[in-house]
């Protein structure tokens, strides 16, 4: 029997309410999926575009990307991220299983604490990046990318079967995976988010520091899983919502002019300024976490002991250094986009490739990230980037490009 369950249960508080939940996913072959907020977006003037197999809002009404981006930096924006895959892993050997599946140290993670991590293939390449939240040693909440849904779920199924057939699981107990189908996920991001959300809850949000989560009461009779963090570099929260409650919660959280609905266009420029990776552009299965500058997600003791899938390739890069490294770039004259080649001055062969790039609305500069051969990755190194068949002066820059504003108490 498969250890994966596709369910609408997250907490027993919601079971009765979920019986009336509306299906948001399309079963028609080739048809874009929809989050529970699709109609809500249309009513609010969203321009919908295909993204990661979903129809998602690019922008709303006549509010442009730059204005929307700056509003999040100065006030607050609400993003629909319900296309992401939310899952619960549970069972007596869950911690050990996830420490085999990822290189992170989860046994030392405190309850209701989160960490960025990566799923690795046998060679140490990144299958996906993920946020892992520990509720208890035998229960973890895991969020993975929509664009990797089938790859991730197939990987989980295969590895669960392998794990549950092993001696530790036979001795201590199996691990099961519950996929939270059709659950909403909203990201409230920006410096005004905490003050606004505090008006809707009796929970003291000052105690919920970056990387922490809790079930908190919210006006209207909601009790929701809220995690402090996000994808913009600003203070913010990600709220997981049962299907039957998603529209009501979204309506509650939007409060113009302070909290504005924000689409994918601003989300992409915000995450780029924050130096955060987009899977499929900046990360892939041929890239190790060491090359990607994500060595910090690997537990200290695990950098020597290994014992996770892909450890050999990762530890080799730790010992010998990776052949290339992810870097930030400031590009003069014109914005560089995905696929632009990076050159050393006066050298014909490229030394790297841009993976994400564009104008920074906040800085007024052209920024990018990409990979260059090791040795060319140091801060301030002069390089050139080919944009529209012309080499533009550029320099290696540290990331994030814009200082983060996480709430750490």
Automatic annotation (TrEMBL):
Residues annotated as domain GCVT N-terminal: 37-300
Keyword terms: Aminotransferase, Mitochondrion, Transferase, Transit peptide
Gene Ontology terms describing biological process: glycine catabolic process
Assigned GO CC terms: glycine cleavage complex; mitochondrion
Superkingdom of this protein's organism: Eukaryota
GO molecular function: aminomethyltransferase activity; transaminase activity
Known catalytic reactions: N(6)-[(R)-S(8)-aminomethyldihydrolipoyl]-L-lysyl-[protein] + (6S)-5,6,7,8-tetrahydrofolate = N(6)-[(R)-dihydrolipoyl]-L-lysyl-[protein] + (6R)-5,10-methylene-5,6,7,8-tetrahydrofolate + NH4(+)
Presence of the UniProt keyword Transit peptide in the record: yes
EC nos: 2.1.2.10
Residues reported to bind substrate: 238
Aminomethyltransferase C-terminal domain segment(s): 324-402
Location in or out of the cell: Mitochondrion
General function of this protein: The glycine cleavage system catalyzes the degradation of glycine.
Similarity comment: family membership: Belongs to the GcvT family.
Oligomer status and interactors: The glycine cleavage system is composed of four proteins: P, T, L and H.
NCBIfam families attached to this UniProt entry: gcvT, PRK00389.1
Protein name: Aminomethyltransferase
Organism: Fistulina hepatica ATCC 64428
């Amino acid at each position: 029997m498969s250890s994966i369950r596709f369910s609408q249960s997250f907490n027993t508080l919601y079971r009765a309410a979920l019986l009336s939940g509306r299906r948001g996913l399309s079963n028609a072959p080739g048809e874009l999926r929809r989050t529970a907020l699709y109609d809500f977006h249309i009513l609010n003037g969203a321009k919908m575009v295909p993204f990661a197999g979903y129809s998602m809002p690019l922008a709303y009404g006549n509010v442009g990307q730059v204005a929307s981006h700056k509003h999040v930096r100065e006030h607050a924006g609400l993003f629909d991220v319900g296309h992401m895959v939310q899952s619960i892993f549970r069972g007596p050997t869950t911690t050990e299983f996830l420490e085999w599946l990822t290189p992170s140290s989860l046994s030392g993670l405190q309850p209701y604490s989160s960490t960025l991590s990566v799923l690795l293939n046998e060679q140490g390449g990144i299958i996906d990046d993920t946020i892992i939240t520990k509720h208890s040693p035998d229960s973890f909440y895991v969020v993975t990318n929509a664009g990797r849904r089938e790859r991730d779920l197939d990987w989980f199924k295969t590895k669960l079967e392998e794990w549950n057939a092993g001696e530790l699981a036979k001795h201590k107990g199996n691990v099961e995976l519950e996929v939270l189908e059709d659950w909403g996920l909203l990201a409230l991001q920006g410096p005004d988010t905490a003050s606004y959300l505090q008006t809707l809850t009796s929970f003291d949000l000052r105690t919920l520091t970056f990387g922490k989560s809790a079930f908190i009461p919210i006006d209207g009779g909601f009790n929701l899983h809220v995690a402090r963090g996000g994808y913009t570099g600003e203070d913010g929260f990600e709220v997981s919502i049962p299907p039957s409650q998603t529209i009501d919660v979204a309506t509650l959280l939007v409060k113009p002019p302070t909290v504005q609905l924000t689409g994918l266009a601003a989300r992409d420029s915000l995450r780029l300024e924050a130096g955060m990776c987009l899977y499929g552009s900046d990360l892939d299965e041929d890239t190790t976490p060491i090359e990607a500058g994500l060595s910090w997600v690997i537990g200290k003791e695990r950098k020597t002991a290994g014992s996770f899938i892909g450890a050999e390739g990762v530890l080799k890069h730790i010992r010998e250094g990776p052949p290339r490294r992810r870097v930030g770039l400031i590009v003069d004259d014109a914005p560089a986009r995905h696929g632009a080649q990076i050159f050393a001055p006066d050298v014909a062969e490229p030394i790297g490739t841009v993976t994400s790039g564009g104008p920074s609305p906040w800085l007024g500069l052209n920024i990018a990230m990409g990979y260059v051969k090791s040795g060319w990755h140091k801060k301030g190194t002069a390089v050139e980037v080919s944009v529209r068949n012309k080499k533009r002066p550029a320099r290696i820059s540290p990331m994030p490009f814009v200082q983060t504003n996480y709430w750490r108490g």
